């Protein structure tokens, strides 16, 4: 009996109080509170090949405009049709790995000697898998591409949906779609609605 009590005390000292103990004491819970705070995308992912890395991703309704080695392109996301479009392509811009200038209170932290970044959103820390490559925002929904995952975070509720476990390079989110580049191609799904 002393051994069980000692083991319980050691676990409490090592890991702190349990989730229910923290709730009883009125303290905030760490994010995410698995498994309820993180869900996985149930939607099929569509894709299209590109030549070289796509850049200047821009959503307009159901159309994604982008540039690759072929020049200016557009994809009808509903029909999955890719075609050339008029216009020229500027040089590729730097991705938003710091998630800065998005109009929301967000910061990316990269702990020393750790392979994963942490996203601080409105006072809540959200651990991510991998290093952040790019971020985009539409309203209160933030899309994040890391080397290991593509996530959609509802900033208002601090809920995160994992969209793709393969990671991504560049990302854009709009009212109807989330689109990201990965391995010389583009991938997209209809945006999950809360």
Structure, described:
This protein is mostly beta strands. The chain has two domains: 1-27; 38-190, no CATH class. It has two helices and 16 strands. The protein has helices spanning 2-15, 19-24; strands spanning 38-40, 46-49, 55-60, 63-68, 71-76, 81-84, 106-109, 118-121, 124-127, 132-138, 141-146, 150-154, 159-164, 171-173, 177-181, 185-190. The chain starts with a helix and ends with a strand. The relative contact order is 0.17.
Write the layout of secondary structure elements.
Elements: H1 2-15, H2 19-24, E1 38-40, E2 46-49, E3 55-60, E4 63-68, E5 71-76, E6 81-84, E7 106-109, E8 118-121, E9 124-127, E10 132-138, E11 141-146, E12 150-154, E13 159-164, E14 171-173, E15 177-181, E16 185-190
Parallel strand pairs: 1-13
Antiparallel strand pairs: 2-16, 3-4, 4-5, 5-6, 7-8, 8-9, 10-11, 11-12, 12-13, 14-15, 15-16
Strand order of the largest sheet: 1-13-12-11-10
Oligomer: single chain
Q: Main sheet?
A: 5 strands, mixed
Which structural class is indicated by helix and strand composition? mainly beta
- Rg for CA atoms: 20 Å
Portion of residues within helices: 10-25%
* Arithmetic mean pLDDT: 81
Topology pattern, helix = H, strand = E = HHEEEEEEEEEEEEEEEE
Q: Name the shape in a single word.
A: globular
Portion of residues in beta strands equals 35-45%
Let me know the number of strands: 16
Unreliable stretches (pLDDT < 50, length at least 5) are 1-37
């Amino acid at each position: 009996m002393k051994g069980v009590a000692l083991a319980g005390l050691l676990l409490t000292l090592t890991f702190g109080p349990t989730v229910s103990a923290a709730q009883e004491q009125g303290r905030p819970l760490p994010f995410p509170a698995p498994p309820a705070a993180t869900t996985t995308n149930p939607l099929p992912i569509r894709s299209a090949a590109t030549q070289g890395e796509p850049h200047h991703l821009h959503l307009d309704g159901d159309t994604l405009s982008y540039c690759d080695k072929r020049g200016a392109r557009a994809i009808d996301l509903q029909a999955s049709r890719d075609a050339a479009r008029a216009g020229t392509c500027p040089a590729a811009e730097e991705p938003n790995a710091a998630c800065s200038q998005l109009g929301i209170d967000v910061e990316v932290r990269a702990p020393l000697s750790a392979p994963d970044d942490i996203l601080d959103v409105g006072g809540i820390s959200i651990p991510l898998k991998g290093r952040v490559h790019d971020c985009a925002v539409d309203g209160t929904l933030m899309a994040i591409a890391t080397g290991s995952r593509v996530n959609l975070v509802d900033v208002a509720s601090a809920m995160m949906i994992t969209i793709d476990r393969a990671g991504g390079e560049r990302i854009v989110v709009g009212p109807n779609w989330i689109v990201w580049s990965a391995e010389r191609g583009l991938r997209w799904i209809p945006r999950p609605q809360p």
